[in-house]
Design a protein that fits this description.
The chain is mainly alpha-helical. It has one domain. Helices cover 44% and strands 7% of the residues. A hairpin with a 2-residue loop joins strand 1 and strand 2 (13-17). It is elongated, with a radius of gyration of 31 Å.
């Protein structure tokens, strides 16, 4: 049975890994491999993987280098601070599209109205009249 292909983005670099292909893992830089191992260790410690319907969250990259003395420590974030929103159902998408269409209608300039056409016609007639009188 062929192993599934897993795509991982580490520090902006995309890796497509498969358990059957050890060569691809060997081509990863050591720093990225350490980040991947740290993430997999956390997954292993937490036990069972989340169900497939759960939203996927992205963890912030860890800084392996120690903080120099006198430097301010990095601010740690909770996973809930940068968690991706849950997948939307079809009803949610329809409601979002309706809201976006309503916002676009509100922000759109009004078209030509009957009063606008009358004003434009009157202005042009006045301009023609003035040109005829002056010339």
């Amino acid at each position: 049975m062929a192993q599934p292909r897993i795509t991982v983005i580490i520090n902006g670099t995309t890796y497509s890994l498969c358990a059957d292909n050890a060569e691809a893992i060997g081509h990863m830089p050591a720093e990225d491999r350490l980040h991947l191992l740290a993430l997999l260790e956390v997954v292993r410690r937490n036990g069972d993987p989340p169900p497939a319907t759960a939203p996927v969250t992205r963890a912030a990259p860890q800084n392996p280098s120690p903080t120099p003395p006198g430097a301010r420590p990095a601010v740690t974030r909770r996973a809930s601070d940068n968690a991706a929103p849950a997948r939307m159902g079809s009803g949610d998408i329809d409601a979002l599209m309706a809201r976006l269409a309503a916002e676009e209608q509100r922000s759109r300039k009004p078209g030509l109205t009957r009063a606008g056409i009358y004003k434009l016609t009157g202005g042009l007639l006045m301009l023609i009249f003035l040109l005829v009188v002056v010339l």
